[in-house]
Amino acid sequence: MTAHSAAPHASARNLARTGGPKDDSSWLEHVAGWTLVVVVAMFVTRLGLI
Q1: How far apart are CA 9 and CA 41, in angstroms?
Q2: Which of 24, 25, 26, 41 is the most exposed place for a label (fewest CB within 10 A)?
């Protein structure tokens, strides 16, 4: 085992976060997400892919 791999990580809990949904997500993220879904659906139907 090398010295780097044996060194304890001070913020191992922060390194394990994946950036997924949080409890305090803002309404702007929800609006932006649903807007993206609607825009992609419009492009898909406009191109005749469905």
Answers
A1: 44
A2: 24
